[in-house]
Design brief:
The complex is a heterodimer of chains A (about 325) and B (about 270). Chain A has about 325 residues and is mostly helical. Chain A is built from 16 helices and two strands. A two-stranded antiparallel sheet of chain A has the order 1-2. In chain A, α11 packs antiparallel against α13. In chain B, α1 crosses α11. Classes of the chains: A mainly alpha (about 325), B mainly alpha (about 270).
Chain lengths: ~325, ~270
């Protein structure tokens, strides 16, 4: 009896490493704690700490005369967000984010659908890398490329001139809101660059959702008399919707917070990101900057809550 | 029998998908052309002539080298920190179930889910509140925070596939925790960590929004580039730098892809 016990229960290991090892095995909780402490300390203190400190500052106000921060709880900074010039900034950004999201979904869908249903073997790899490379390539270089394209002497004007379509560009630029003296300083330019930079984030989740749609479902729809438009409307689209919503989280959030694209390619009218940047920098009004940055947090919070109810997180 | 795999795509879909991919790639290709242009003052197309002169000019610019050096150092150290923190977090989350597990995933993803400007301004106001002067380390602090998520995602995906019975078998055969980690866990998750590290490096190397808030007077390469975009000084040099940046960021992406491509074939994954 005792011989069995002797061989199946090993002796304690010697040395510090051995004793630690035994401890981890007997009390997994300690190992877990040791593993979790460094990342939680880092993210908790550096990230959450800063974030909470920022949010608290939005409840302070700035003294109009001295320019110093008045450390008393107040909602007056939030009230400033509602004055027309500030509210316009919020509205403009949200409208732009919605437009960019919708347009990205429209452009991304065929790519995702082709990659999910038709691309095989070599083409699957080409499509995957074809999406990943632009997604990961340098953000500023992408913006720079569009500065080259949209410039008055750039390739787009040259191309349209070759096609004798310059009148179309001029007619578009003459339109009230979307136009301007050149594409690179108009909302249209900002819109195109936003789509270009954030659209790859839309493709992958849609593709993931469509990969799970069995092809014979599409054929069943056709067999039952549905034309392609009906098949899309009643079969494909509802099944792809969680993927579209998952992708829209990225396009929407990234557009809401961006301040570099509208600064480099766009009219001089501000977006939320630019307002935050200007308020904390030149104006030195940290409370208002903080209040402005609460807007995207709240919008994204609502958005994520709705997306979760739609089951979008399964498609991520 | 499933009949769904032998149909060919409708023409309209082919065109739309092809046009979409072209839309994603042509602008980047244009960068390559402009690096060789002889035109200095404008973005004229087609370029009046092609030259290699600007490569030499860029090579001799100390400010470009300085910015590049800073970017590489920041990216290397941030990646190292992110590798440690991300792997620890992934190991904890995937091995055990505990209270608040979902919250930890959310906490890791948050720095990248919220707009960069919020992370940036939060860090900046925290630095000024704690009276920490801007330095190399303030940049690293910001970068490491949002790089954790990339490593974490790669590591979690791989941990899920590494069979738990392998670890138990190793322990049963008398290996201690450290030996198990060294000889069983590390070889299995190694490529995923390398891929995550490469992506984290690429992410940090390219980051500009958070960096503008945490850098103070120093310029990383993206900050240098941003200044050139806002106030162009010597456009041809910017063109060359842009091309080099494209090439430098493509390499880790391709490397990460080839490392994780065969991820299904890790030991114990077949069960």
């Amino acid at each position: 009896m005792s011989t069995v016990a002797d061989t199946s229960i090993l002796a304690r290991r010697g040395g510090l490493a051995g004793r630690l090892s035994d401890l981890f095995w007997r009390k997994p909780g300690i190992l877990l704690l040791l593993m979790l402490t460094p990342p939680l300390l880092w993210l908790g203190i550096i990230y959450l700490g800063s974030l909470i400190a920022l949010l608290l500052q939005s409840f302070f106000s700035i003294d109009d005369f001295s320019g110093l921060i008045n450390y008393e709880f107040t909602l007056s900074t939030y009230r400033q967000l509602l004055i027309p010039s500030n509210f316009d900034i919020i509205l403009r950004t949200v409208v732009m984010a919605v437009m960019v999201t919708l347009a990205s979904a429209v452009i991304a869908f065929p790519i995702a659908y082709y990659a999910a249903r038709y691309a095989r073997g070599k083409w699957k790899v080409i499509f995957y890398l074809g999406v990943m490379l632009p997604l990961w390539s340098s953000y500023l270089v992408k913006i720079y490329a569009w500065k080259l394209i949209l410039a008055k002497e750039g390739i787009l004007t040259w191309f349209l001139a070759k096609l004798h379509l310059l009148w179309l560009l001029d007619a578009w630029l003459a339109l009230p809101v979307v136009g301007g003296s050149s594409l690179s300083i108009s909302y249209t330019g900002t819109f195109i660059v936003f789509i270009y930079v954030w659209m790859p984030f839309m493709i992958l989740p849609i593709q993931a959702a469509l990969e799970r749609v069995p092809g014979n479902l599409i054929e069943a729809s056709a067999d039952l008399g549905g034309n392609p438009a009906q098949t899309f409307r009643f079969v494909l689209f509802p099944l792809a919707l969680p993927g579209i919503i998952a992708g829209s989280i990225f396009t929407f959030s990234l557009t809401l917070g961006d301040y570099i694209i509208p600064q480099i390619i766009g009219s001089s009218r501000l977006f939320i990101g630019q307002a935050v940047y200007a308020q904390q920098g030149t104006a030195g009004n940290i409370p208002l900057a903080a209040a402005f940055s609460v807007v995207p947090i709240v919008i994204m919070g609502l958005y994520l809550w709705m997306a979760k109810r739609q089951g979008a997180f399964d498609a991520l | 029998m499933r009949s769904d795999r032998n149909t060919s795509a409708p023409l309209g879909l082919k065109i739309a998908a092809g046009a979409g991919l072209a839309f994603l790639h042509l602008p980047i290709l244009l960068i390559f052309l402009y690096a060789f242009t002889t035109e200095e003052k404008s973005y004229q197309f087609p370029p009046p002539g092609l030259t290699l002169k600007w490569f030499a000019v860029t090579w001799n610019r100390p400010d470009v080298w300085e910015a590049l050096g800073l970017s590489v150092r920041v990216a290397a150290i941030s990646t190292a920190i992110a590798l440690v923190l991300g792997t620890l977090c992934a190991a904890a989350v995937s091995r055990t179930k505990f209270f608040g597990r979902e919250t930890i995933s959310l906490l890791v993803i948050l720095p990248i889910a919220l707009p960069g400007i919020i992370t940036g301004i939060a860090l900046r106001s925290a630095f000024s509140f704690a009276e920490i002067p801007f330095s190399f380390w303030t940049i690293v602090l910001g970068h490491a925070t949002f790089c954790v998520v990339v490593v974490y995602n790669n590591a979690v995906a791989r941990f899920r596939r590494v069979s738990g019975s392998l670890i138990e078998a190793s322990m049963d055969l008398g290996a201690d925790s450290f030996q198990t980690f060294r000889y069983i866990i590390l070889p299995n998750i190694g490529t995923a960590l390398l891929a995550g590290g490469m992506l984290a490096f690429a992410l940090s190397f390219d980051e500009v929004i958070v960096t503008t808030f945490t850098a103070g007077q120093q310029s990383t390469l993206p900050i240098w580039m941003l200044e050139e975009l806002v106030r162009p000084r010597q456009r041809p040099v910017t063109n060359v730098v842009a091309m080099v940046v494209v090439i430098v960021t493509f390499l880790p992406i391709l490397g990460a892809y080839y490392l994780t491509r065969d991820g299904d074939q890790v030991a114990g994954g077949g069960k």
